[in-house]
Write a structure and sequence with these properties.
By secondary structure, this protein is an all-alpha fold. 85% of the residues lie in helices and 0% in strands. The protein is elongated, with a radius of gyration of 15 Å. The chain crosses the membrane at residues 6-25, 34-51.
């Protein structure tokens, strides 16, 4: 696992905690902001994956 993926997944702990809080304790959450954060993290993972593949092709 590269450092970029590790950093992104480390930041995913916060929304995961909010989802657990929402599901188990039925607390209020700002769903649109939670979904926006998930989309941003997914885009970050995709961009990091694309960048790592591009870098490997350039080295080869």
């Amino acid at each position: 696992m590269d450092a970029g993926t590790l950093a992104i997944m480390n930041n995913a702990l916060v929304p995961a905690g909010l989802i657990v809080n929402l599901v188990i304790w039925n607390r209020d959450a700002d769903i649109p902001r939670l979904l926006l954060g998930a989309v941003i993290m997914a885009a970050s993972l995709w961009l990091n994956h694309w960048w790592c593949q591009r870098r490997q092709v350039a080295v080869s």
